[in-house]
Amino acid sequence: MSKRILVIGAGFAGMWSALASARLLDQVGRTDMEIALVAPTPELHVRPRLYEQNPNGMRAPLQDIFQAVGVRFIQGWVEHIDVARQEVTVATAGAEGASQLVHFDRLVLAAGSRLFRPQIPGLEQHAFNVDQVADAAELDAHIGSLSGLPDSAARNTVVIAGAGFTGIETAAEMPARLREVLGENAAVNVIMVERNDAIGPDLGAGPRPVITQALTELGVTWKLGSGVAAVDAHGVTLENGERIEATTVIWTAGARASALTAQIPAERDKFGRLHVDSSLKVKGLDTVFATGDCAYAATDDEGNFAAMSCQHAMNLGRSAGHNVAADLLGVAAIPYSQPKYVTCLDLGPWGAVYTEGWDRQVKLTGGVAKALKTQINTEWIYPPRADRAEALALADPQRIVVA
């Protein structure tokens, strides 16, 4: 019986894990091992772009690539992981309640992350988000429908809850998107709400002057030091009691690793990510690897850990895929390392800001940085062509991509 590597998830980490495993098996000429990948659809959802218009267009097909390199796609949703029995229960797309058991010799958990939704009154019922394609499409349709409502300050107001990476990128897009729907002369009002005392608290002080300049020139304002206490159909109430009337509230505050990580009997960090060693094997387990947003992985020897971002997920995926196959083959692993860290933050029509290093030293701003961001978003993070040789070459774990 052939051995099986099972990858859970078709995001950046999952896709590259499958391709990297296929690359190593191809290199050693092994055809007696199966690589299978389970996900709801054979698509890469280009999640970093979901703050843009037309989120339904942010899907990249993967079936042709998988067929080209010999990855078996299993369509379904993972319901249960039994590490001891080395099997996964997959709910299939067929009859209601249908499921199948899939055995694995090695597992790569690349199930990504989901938006953190705390128990705030009205949040689930009344707030939009840009976490998944369907969520972003719902927001897109809502914005398009605003012109059918009576003109009012609330109709023309968007509240962005959270002033982190996603919140800033979403806010920077909103004034232009609102005016496209409501008219160029509409008095639009985009307000960011952040519990911390600074915009971009996790981005640090380096790029903050550029970010605040861009947002100010775009007409975005912000309220700091008090988070959202409640959301309703007509706006938000802040923790300090302040009321903001708004027809559109967008929640962007934080992410947590897939709930499937809780089914793995191992240590997790505060975001639910599994502690892994340098090969991305889950610490304390012999058959399970974690990668992407499911992994708490050191990027270097300086105390830095991978962020929950596609920049790290792509390279984490390549490393996990190579190393899980190496583990089965009994060959040496290639330790994961990603010492170079950059950020490229989209600032809407104003441009972008590009930084290097964990201290985020600003290197490019405005239109030049925007051109780089556009290249990243439309070229670098997309899947390779369905060409076997090209796809396997790009899956090299030592080919570090900074995006």
Describe this structure in words.
This protein has 403 residues and is an alpha/beta fold. It folds into two domains: 3-115 and 255-340, 3-Layer(bba) Sandwich (FAD/NAD(P)-binding domain); 123-251, FAD/NAD(P)-binding domain, CATH 3.50.50.60. The protein has nine helices and 23 strands. The strands form seven sheets. It has a seven-stranded mixed β-sheet with strand order 7-6-5-2-1-8-19. Strands 12-11-10-16 form a four-stranded parallel β-sheet. Strand 10, helix 5 and strand 11 (189-194) form a beta-alpha-beta unit. Helix 1 runs parallel beside helix 7, helix 1 packs across helix 9 (388-394) and helix 5 (165-182) runs parallel beside helix 6 (208-218). The relative contact order is 0.16. Its EC number is 1.6.-.-. It is an enzyme of class 1 (oxidoreductase). Residues 4-314 form the FAD/NAD(P)-binding domain.
Low-pLDDT runs of 5+ residues are none
Question: Structural class of the secondary structure composition?
Answer: alpha/beta
Largest sheet: number of strands, sense, barrel closure: 7 strands, mixed
What overall geometry do the principal axes of the alpha carbons give? globular
EC number: 1.6.-.-
Family: Belongs to the NADH dehydrogenase family.
GO molecular function: oxidoreductase activity
Protein name: NADH dehydrogenase-like protein
